[in-house]
Write a structure and sequence with these properties.
Elements lengths: L26 H22 L3 H12 L5 H6 L15 E4 L6 E4 L4 H13 L15 H10 L8 H11 L4 H10 L25 E4 L2 E4 L8 E2 L8 E4 L2 E5 L6 H8 L3 H7 L13 E3 L11 E3 L6 H8 L3 H8 L12 E3 L3
Antiparallel strand pairs: 1-2, 3-4, 5-6, 6-7, 7-8, 9-10
Helix pairs in contact: 1-2, 1-4, 1-7, 2-6, 5-6, 8-9
Length: 339
């Protein structure tokens, strides 16, 4: 994976488009490019079923964020050469050979459309359209495998770029639109979906730097367990207890006859963490989704907080939103709770 820093070396040596090797761009150029072409890429995803994340990432690499000569003079953002069937305008640019013929477009939007047609109309890329449209990693690797680029690191570079700048949020927007959601405006480096009716918000307690999901118990249906004296409640069809003052995961585990390692796993906590008073502690694995479907992030919330609040396994929240344990969320972000 590439390490994109505050300044990105602009040499794109060995990428398919040799003409981009002399164009320089930095991190802000990448963010600006994503913002500028997000909408057209999502629209092409609707029309041609090509992940918007892949389209934008290719555009960044092949056009050097729109700064290459081919992009500036020919509006060609994907390094597509003339080929025998092309009857439109052309531009000559040095690439693998001197003065090679590339397609010239009237607008960048036309380049995006032709990129979609280029992939959909060629048999060599037919494998792409058998893939999950939300699996950008498989798309990147299959693009390389099917010969879109000669650089052996092409797929890894696309994946690194998508993950570093959270470009996969554009695919999430497509998914929301397709399933009846109208997303909010694309925010920089944030997954964006439209909110639905939130659940009632119980009391909140803070650890230093963290927001912990707590409850009094009255917000949830009570149940009984033959294995413990503790009151047991249900959230999202998952049993939990409420931590008392001085509780540890080991103590709770003993009370409910569950291994403490499993209890920590159910609640996505490390070996050195302990519950706060009134914090909910799940005593079985959380569900894989929640009928609420979407949550709008509030100040101080973490992905674990959201996982505990809605009773959804953290790894599935990562999966649905194409995030991981290193991802940072911001107030106003909207997080999918169900695929």
């Amino acid at each position: 994976m590439d390490n994109f820093g505050k300044t990105i070396a602009c040499v794109i040596i060995g990428l398919m488009s040799g003409f981009a090797a002399f164009a320089q761009y930095n991190e802000q150029d990448i963010r600006d490019y994503i913002e500028q072409y997000a909408e057209v890429a999502i629209q092409k995803m609707h029309e041609y079923k090509i992940p918007a994340s892949i389209t934008v990432a290719q555009g960044i690499f092949e056009s050097a964020c729109g700064k290459s000569r081919l992009a500036v003079e020919g509006n060609n953002h994907f390094g597509i050469k003339c080929h025998t069937e092309w009857t439109g305008d052309t531009i000559l640019v040095d690439d693998d050979e001197l003065q090679e013929c590339f397609r010239r477009y009237a607008s960048v939007s036309e380049s995006y459309t032709d990129h979609s047609l280029f992939l959909t109309n060629r048999k060599r890329y037919s494998n792409l359209f058998q893939l999950d449209i939300m699996d950008y990693k498989a798309w990147a690797r299959t693009l390389k495998q099917d010969g879109y680029a000669t650089n052996p690191q092409y797929a890894d570079r696309l994946i690194s770029l998508i993950e570093r700048f959270n470009i996969a949020r554009l695919d999430t927007i497509y998914y929301q639109q397709k399933h009846g959601y109208v997303p909010m405006a694309v925010a920089e480096s944030k997954p964006v979906v439209q909110n639905t009716q939130p659940v009632e918000k119980p009391a909140e307690t803070k650890k230093p730097g963290k927001k912990v999901f707590t409850a009094s118990g009255s917000e949830y249906p009570a149940d009984e367990s033959p294995f413990t004296y503790r009151k047991v409640f249900k959230n999202n069809n998952t049993y939990f207890v409420i931590a008392e003052k001085g509780d540890t995961y080991e103590k709770i585990a003993q009370d409910i006859l569950v291994m403490s390692d499993n209890l920590r796993k159910f609640n996505d906590v490390g070996a050195n963490e302990e519950p706060m008073e009134n914090e909910i502690v799940y005593v079985e694995a959380k569900a894989r989704g929640n009928a609420t479907r979407v949550h709008t992030v509030q100040p101080g919330e973490t992905l674990r907080y959201i996982s505990q609040r809605y009773g959804v396994q953290l790894r599935y929240i990562f999966k649905y939103n194409m995030l991981d344990e290193n991802s940072v969320i911001h107030p106003g972000d909207q997080i999918l709770l169900k695929r």
